[in-house]
Amino acid sequence: MMQYGLLVMGAPYSSPAPHSALRFAHAAIARGHRLAGVFFYHDGVHNASSLMAPPQDELNLNEAWLELHRLHDVQLDVCIAAALRRGLMSESEAQRHGKQVFNIEKPFELTGLGQLLELQQRSDRFITFA
Amino acid sequence: MATPDTLLVIIRHAPHGSSWLREGLDAALVAAAFGQPVELLFMGQGIMALLKGQGSGAPGQKASLPTIDMLEMYDIDKLWVPKEALQNLDISTDALVDGVTLIANVDIPDLLQQHAKILSF
After folding, report:
1. Which residues pair with A126 in a beta bridge?
2. Where does the signal sequence lie (chain B) (predicted)?
3. CA separation (Å) from A3 to A35, A63, A92, B39?
4. pTM for the complete prediction?
């Protein structure tokens, strides 16, 4: 059994990276491996937006990540600097920045790059999807 | 020789075309600030990040060179640059910031193998 960590840097609906990462996550877990966590960085932070609303015949990637968390309790960390820059924020960040809306909710967590390095430290295999 | 903990950050994108360079450098700086040894490998157009005397990008875009100049302060002193890539881009070593280490393409697999931890931007 291996401990895997995933780094997702591709945006939903413009890069195949999130699809590949999700498929990899499910395949690894199905084979008995553990998923230590997923870190969203660069354009990958858009995966965390609860406001995405794709047509009904397309996979809602945000919900797909929530499903992964629900089934396997996988930690979903989002780089706060990359997210704020791109207009993604939690309720508390929205208050801090005087914004009317927010689009990041639990189980997604806004966190620093230190968490990315920490995830890499505790993973036997750390894989980038970009 | 890299320690088992050494992080290799690979930069493959030129400044200003995207935020890959800036966010890659951010990851390198955070790792260094946490006390992890860090080395950088610039490949392909990523080498452009090392050009001396470059300014900021289009209005409103921050320059990346000040961050490159800051690396030494964070004890990041290994800046690997593949020799052949320099030739391909017709860039001489004099045009780059001080302190780069040239590496031959054939030695890059070894460099990657010495690093258990790699982030690619």
Report:
1. A5
2. none
3. 6, 24, 32, 25
4. 0.95
Give residue B55's pLDDT: 84
**Position A85, amino acid:** R
Contact B7 A117 (CB under 8 A): yes
Q: What φ, ψ does residue A99 adopt, rounded to 5°? A: -105, 150
Give the H or E element holding residue B100. Answer: strand B100-103
Angstrom CA distances, A108 to A3, A90, B106, stand at: 20, 9, 42
Contact B100, B79 (CB under 8 A): yes
Mark yes or no for CB contact A117/B30 under 8 Å.
Answer: yes
Mean of the per-residue pLDDT values for chain A? 98
Q: How far is A36 from chain B (nearest CA, A)?
A: 16
- At B111, the amino acid letter reads L
Active site residue A106: no
Find the distance separating the first CA and the last CA of chain B, reported in whole Å: 23
Checking if the pLDDT of A90 tops 70, the result is: yes
Give chain A's length.
130
The C-alpha angle with vertex B48 and arms to B46 and B50, in degrees rounded to 5, equals 100
Mean pLDDT in residue range B50-63: 86
Q: In the predicted model, is pLDDT for residue B20 greater than 90? A: yes
Quick one: tokens of B15? 């400044």
Q: Which amino acid is at B6?
A: T
CA-CA distance, B79 to B96, in Å (whole number)? 11
Q: Between helices A113-121 and B20-33, what is the axis angle to 10°?
A: 70
